[in-house]
Amino acid sequence: MRILIAEDEISIAKAVKVVLEKNKYSVDMVHNGTDALDYMRQLNYDAVILDIMMDGMDGIEVIMKARAERITTPVLF
């Protein structure tokens, strides 16, 4: 299972990534909304963990744009 973490607090993102990888998930990590949307466009993720308040584009904007582009990956805010 491949998961994208989009979190601007680097220490939080790293902690979540470590826990997921210990549980055998493949994890990509970005730190702003613009990169999150770019990654979602390029790769097929099984899930996205998305921070609501991020630089560049907030999580709500990311999911609205992703859904407009028919990216239907499940998202946890």
Side by side, the strands of the main sheet go 2-1-3-4
* Low-pLDDT ranges: none
> C-alpha Rg, in Å?
11 Å
**Element order, helices and strands?**
EHEHEHE
Q: What's the total count of β strands? A: 4
Helix content bin: 40-55%
Structural class: alpha/beta
Describe this structure as you would to a colleague.
With 77 residues, the protein is α/β, with parallel strands linked by helices. It is 43% helix and 21% strand. The radius of gyration is 11 Å and the shape is globular. The model has no long low-confidence stretch (mean pLDDT 97).
Task: Output the keywords.
77 residues; single chain; 21% strand; alpha/beta
Write a short abstract of this structure.
The chain contains 3 helices and 4 strands; from the N terminus they run βαβαβαβ. With 77 residues, the chain is α/β, with parallel strands linked by helices. Strands 2-1-3-4 form a 4-stranded parallel beta sheet, with helices on both faces.
SSE layout and pairing:
Blueprint: E1 2-6, H1 10-22, E2 26-30, H2 33-42, E3 47-50, H3 59-68, E4 75-76
Parallel strand pairs: 1-2, 1-3, 3-4
